[in-house]
């Protein structure tokens, strides 16, 4: 699942008339990099949620044949459902898991084939070193388990494997994912890994421009 329903407030005015996943860097829309990377890893059945200007996403990507993928869509109401609500809304399509969820507003050269085929617990998170705009990090990682702490923390990359059990007993609607993850961490039910390669949260026009320059230099 690629999460693509955010309004992109920090990206305005670029997102006033175009959804953030369709903003371009290096000659491609941000979401195309995710689709291509997933297909390279053998993941072809992909669902994309959307809300703000979502019809543009469907029109641009179609059913995915151009990418060798099979795309489906999970439309959401105005204001979207936040990450937790979005995944809960798509569970009938995603199944019991484990299933992969990727934030549509990050860029990375992460190889999805390196993710485990299975894991112990309800979630498996990919963590990265803290970027300049998020120096405090999110969670700690020790011996393959992710947990809350006050020490040296890493940042959640927006790449995670989940089981439907993480959402057990949670009613449909708008809610964030983080409280569910923290509850699972309290029961040692979240595993993870650190990724040291290229990763960026493309949350502002300045970061989008920096990514565009990087990709054009390397491309």
Named at the architecture level, the CATH assignment is: Alpha-Beta Complex
DSSP strand content: 25-35%
- Strand order, sheet with most strands: 5-4-1-6-11-8-12
Oligomer: single chain
Main structural class: alpha/beta
Order of helices and strands: EEEHEHEHHEEEEEEHEEH
Radius of gyration: 17 Å
CATH topology: Spore Coat Polysaccharide Biosynthesis Protein SpsA, Chain A
What is the count of β-strands? 13
In total, the number of domains comes to 1
- State the helical fraction: 10-25%
Q: How far from one another are the termini? A: 27 Å
CATH C-level:
Alpha Beta
Q: What overall geometry do the principal axes of the alpha carbons give?
A: globular
Which consecutive residue ranges, at least 5 long each, have pLDDT under 50?
none
Mean pLDDT: 93
Number of helices: 6
Outline the biggest β-sheet: 7 strands, mixed
CATH superfamily label: Spore Coat Polysaccharide Biosynthesis Protein SpsA, Chain A
Topology:
Elements: E1 2-3, E2 24-25, E3 28-29, H1 30-40, E4 45-50, H2 54-61, E5 70-75, H3 82-89, H4 91-94, E6 99-103, E7 106-108, E8 123-128, E9 140-142, E10 145-147, E11 155-162, H5 178-185, E12 190-195, E13 199-201, H6 205-218
Parallel strand pairs: 1-4, 1-6, 4-5, 8-12
Antiparallel strand pairs: 2-3, 6-11, 7-13, 8-11, 9-10
């Amino acid at each position: 699942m690629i999460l693509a329903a955010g309004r992109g407030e920090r990206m305005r005015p670029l997102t006033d008339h175009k959804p953030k996943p369709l903003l371009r860097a290096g000659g491609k829309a941000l979401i195309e990099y995710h689709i291509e990377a997933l297909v390279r890893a053998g993941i072809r059945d992909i669902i994309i949620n959307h809300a703000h200007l979502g019809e543009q996403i469907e029109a641009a990507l179609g059913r995915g044949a151009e990418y060798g993928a099979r795309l489906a869509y999970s439309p959401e109401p105005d204001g979207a459902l936040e990450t937790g609500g979005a995944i809960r809304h798509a569970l009938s399509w995603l199944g019991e898991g484990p299933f992969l969820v990727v934030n549509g507003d990050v860029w990375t050269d992460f190889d999805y084939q390196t993710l485990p085929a299975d894991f112990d617990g309800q979630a498996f998170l990919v963590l990265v070193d803290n970027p300049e705009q998020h120096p405090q990090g999110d969670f700690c990682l020790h011996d393959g388990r992710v947990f809350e702490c006050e020490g040296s923390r890493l940042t959640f990359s927006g790449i995670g494997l989940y089981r439907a059990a993480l959402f057990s007993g949670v009613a449909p609607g708008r809610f964030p994912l983080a409280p569910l993850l923290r509850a699972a961490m309290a029961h040692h039910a979240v595993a993870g890994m650190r990724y040291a390669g290229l990763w960026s949260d493309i949350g502002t026009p300045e970061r989008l421009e920096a990514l565009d320059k990087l990709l054009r230099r390397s491309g």
